[in-house]
Amino acid sequence: MPEHSTIRPHAPAERAGGQRRLREWMLRDWLGSAFALVVIDQIVKVIVLQTVQPGQVISVAPFFNLVLVYNPGAAFSFLAGASGWQREFFIGVALVASMWIVWMLRRYPERTLFCVALTLILGGAIGNLIDRLWLGSVIDFVDLHLFGYHWPAFNVADSAITCGAAALIWDAFRGDAAAAAGGGASSASTTGSSKL
Predict the structure, then answer these.
(1) What is the reported pTM?
(2) Sign of torsion, CA 173 37 130 108?
(3) Long-range pairs of 68-72 with CB within 8 A, sequence gap ≥ 24
(4) For the chain, which end, N or C, has fewer CB atoms within 10 Å of the first or last residue's CB respectively?
């Protein structure tokens, strides 16, 4: 009995310390994945810069060309035709979004799909941010086309951001579906952690 009484007061503190260490480890894991995505994005862009000339079109498949486009806008050339203010605006958005994402990853590191989505968005945002700081615009090179219609050129970072946004929507719908199907206090406790 005395042994139990001396151990029990320390158990909550030890458990909290273990959870904190697990959260920090998981955060490093998610941030490491985002960093790897940034590295891949930048390596691919350097290869494209060394391989493709501006205005050149390299046909890869009947629906896919490699091109080199300097895009001053956002993903898929959004606001590319603006007068120049968009560079600072998108840099600011990327910095604020990145800080918010790191905070969310630290707060909910155990929510796998949610963190995968945020990690993809973070890696994509930083990849394009590096382009804006380095060149003043983003390097796009993927030209998908079908029946004469061309989708705006994009890159690896844009693809990551798009997949991350889709995963966020999926995660939100999955949480709502679980809450609707479960009902009661037990489902509220499990789905409450999956909501922002």
Answers:
(1) 0.74
(2) positive
(3) 68/139, 68/141, 69/139, 69/140, 69/141, 69/153, 70/135, 70/137, 70/138, 70/139, 70/140, 71/137, 71/138, 71/139, 71/140, 71/153, 72/136, 72/137, 72/138
(4) N
- Tokens in use for 23? 């959260």
The single residue listed with the structure tokens 């060309």 is 65
**In this structure, are residues 76 and 96 in contact, taking their beta carbons and an 8 Å threshold?**
no
CB 150 within 8 A of CB 143: yes
CA of 45: how far to CAs of 38, 39, 97, 188, in Å? 11, 10, 23, 45
Q: For residues 101 and 99, what is the distance between their CA atoms, to the nearest angstrom?
A: 5
Does the pLDDT of residue 168 top 60, yes or no? yes
Q: DSSP string covering 6-42, please?
A: HHGGGHHHHHHHHHHHHHHHHHHHHHHHHHHHHHHHH
> Cα–Cα distance between 84 and 49 in angstroms, integer?
23
Cα angle vertex 141, ends 143, 98, to 5°? 115
Give the mean pLDDT of 6-15.
52
| β-strand partners of 2 | none
pLDDT digits (tens, 9 = 90+) for 66-117: 999 998 765 555 555 555 566 678 788 889 999 999 999 989 888 899 999 9
